[in-house]
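Summary of Year 1 activities. Much of the first year was spent building the evaluation harness for sequence design. The harness presents a backbone, in tokenized form, and records the residue chosen at every position. We chose the following record to illustrate the format because it has been used consistently in internal testing since the harness was completed.
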């Protein structure tokens, strides 16, 4: 063989690997959200976990992807460690599906139908169908299905290209002699580990081994140790992905590696022990694609069912070897925004929303604490407001950056709407927190400089504070529960708060003119009114985002929406406005 004749081999490997990547991404895009929910909910028993891991991995064609998904779910606090282990074991079984599909290349040429099922025939058909669906369809789902066909077709076509390119090697003594080296099981295991670690996919590694089997140079004695090594080498991907993860996530990866290493040693001892006693008659026979696929599948099924009863023991072992995390409460909250979940964008969206919900609750808690400083000031309470305001700033930065990463990960249209709503809302909650800090600073200044409000100012401030507390509580409640009706109740109260603001300012000016209010007290009151009124405005913004994101409003322009609500109020809106107007009266 010449250098030129080998060039198609690189094309075949490239098409094969790219096809696997394309297939996995497309399958996850089509079924990703449902797979995530299955992983989250259907792991109540070990057999269910194994079955689930097998099915999910069989669909997305990557045990590493499933394990990384599980690591992300554990980091997010969604899945328990004991429930995750069977899923990961099942993922090891599911990854063997690719090899079983590729064994179709062993089908003979008898009959047109059987010939069409061969990768050499089926590959071009799938590529043609996939390309047509992707290019000519306007439907995103149809394009994704077309991409699935393209990926599968590229796998078959790449496999066939590798086999055609490698076929002349079977007549080269140098090549066949090379595999005598790997009949040494230690070298074979190392080759399998290194090859899989480089490709970061046991399915791809096994597929290439199946392609090499077409040369007739690979025997059982050569293939078996390589396959054992491949099952350990695939762990490198999840090891790298777990760096920086929480402790339980690292323990899952540790148990995954440990399980495959135990399986490798178990098979090594049994196979070579028995062979030394009875001398397998098939030991030096040439293997085909089906033999490789069968042993790969059998290894993972046997390892899973041997180790499944010992999940509790594996968990205890991992507890001793993986160090405990030493993180603050804040770091635990922010750690929920795990980059591992970006591989499943729809799940990442849900996780971002959980963290944003925590931020919303923290903002409301900080608001009530800042207002309480006017009744009973303490430096300790002021420090808590300051501390939580800084924490909310960190939340805002982390959530915003995470949401931008989700957008870059190409979420579906529904999730994209939620991401945009969260990007807007996180800014409003952060600005509310800034106003809470302003309120706390006014309270601190009043305390240190002995500035007091007049009796009329105190009463008006209490009414305004109660109204803003109610609207803020409604906004947080509506946001957490995705409550459309509660969101609709926010705007009439916001209008009442605007009216309160103007009335209190007018009364304050009258008191200044009458000399019943100090200038210092008046300045503090105006600063408070500004912060409270702006908090109310941000609550109104949050309500608008909820209405738009839930699809109950037929406009994307918030200004047009507000204009329509104010110019053409419904009867229910008018009733709510009257209710709040009577509830918060300035005498």
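For this record, the design step produced the sequence shown next.
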């Amino acid at each position: 063989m010449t250098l030129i004749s080998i060039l198609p081999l690189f094309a075949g490997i490239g098409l094969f690997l790219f096809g696997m990547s394309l297939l996995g991404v497309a399958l996850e895009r089509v079924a990703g959200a449902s797979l995530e929910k299955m992983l989250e909910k259907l792991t109540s028993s070990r057999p269910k976990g194994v079955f689930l891991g097998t099915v999910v991995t069989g669909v997305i064609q990557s045990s590493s992807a499933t394990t990384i998904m599980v690591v992300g779910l554990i980091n997010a606090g969604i899945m328990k460690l004991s429930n995750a282990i069977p899923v990961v074991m099942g993922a090891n079984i599911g990854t063997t599906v690719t090899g079983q599909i590729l064994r179709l290349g062993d089908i003979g040429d008898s009959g047109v139908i059987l010939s069409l099922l061969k990768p050499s025939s089926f590959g071009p058909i799938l590529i043609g169908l996939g390309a047509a669906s992707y290019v000519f369809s306007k439907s995103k789902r149809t394009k994704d299905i077309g991409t699935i066909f393209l990926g599968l077709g590229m796998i078959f076509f790449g496999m066939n290209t590798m086999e055609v390119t490698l076929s002349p090697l079977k007549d080269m003594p140098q090549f066949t002699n090379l595999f005598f080296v790997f009949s040494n099981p230690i070298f074979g295991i190392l080759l399998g580990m290194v090859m899989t670690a480089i490709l970061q996919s046991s399915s791809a590694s096994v597929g290439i081994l199946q392609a090499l089997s077409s040369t007739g140079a690979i025997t059982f004695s050569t293939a078996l140790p390589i396959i054992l090594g491949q099952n350990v080498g695939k762990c490198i991907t999840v090891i790298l992905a777990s760096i920086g993860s929480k402790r339980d996530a690292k323990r899952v990866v540790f148990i995954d590696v440990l399980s495959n290493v135990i399986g490798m040693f178990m098979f090594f001892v049994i196979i070579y022990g028995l062979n030394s006693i009875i001398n397998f008659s098939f030991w030096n026979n040439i293997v085909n694609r089906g033999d490789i696929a069968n042993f790969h599948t059998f290894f993972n099924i046997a390892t899973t069912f041997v180790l499944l009863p010992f999940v509790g023991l594996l968990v205890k072992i991992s507890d001793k070897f993986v160090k405990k995390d030493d993180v603050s409460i804040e770091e635990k909250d922010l750690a929920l925004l795990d980059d591992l979940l970006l591989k499943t964008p729809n799940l990442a969206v849900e996780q971002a929303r959980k963290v944003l919900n925590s931020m919303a609750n923290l903002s409301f808690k900080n608001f009530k604490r800042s207002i309480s400083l006017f009744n009973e000031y303490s430096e300790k309470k002021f420090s808590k407001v300051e501390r939580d305001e800084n924490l909310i700033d960190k939340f805002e930065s982390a959530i915003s950056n995470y949401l931008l990463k989700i957008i870059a990960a190409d979420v579906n249209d529904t999730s994209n709407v939620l991401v945009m709503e969260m990007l807007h809302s996180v800014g409003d909650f952060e600005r509310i927190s800034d106003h809470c800090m302003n309120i706390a600073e006014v309270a601190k200044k009043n305390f240190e400089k002995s500035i007091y409000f007049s009796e009329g100012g105190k009463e008006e401030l209490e009414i305004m504070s109660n109204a803003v507390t109610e609207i803020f509580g409604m906004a947080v409640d509506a946001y957490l529960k995705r409550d459309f009706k509660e969101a609709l109740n926010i705007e009439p109260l916001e209008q009442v708060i605007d009216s309160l603001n103007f009335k209190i300012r007018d009364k304050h000016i009258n008191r200044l003119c009458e000399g019943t209010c100090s200038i210092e007290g008046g300045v503090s009151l105006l600063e408070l009114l500004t912060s409270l009124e702006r908090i109310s405005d941000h609550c109104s913004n949050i309500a608008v985002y909820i209405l738009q994101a839930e699809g109950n409003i037929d406009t994307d322009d918030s200004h047009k929406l507000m204009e329509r609500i104010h110019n053409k109020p419904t009867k229910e809106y008018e009733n709510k406005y009257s209710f709040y107007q009577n509830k918060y009266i300035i005498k």
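The first helix runs from residue 3 to 41. Quantitative recovery figures across the full test set are reported in Table 2.
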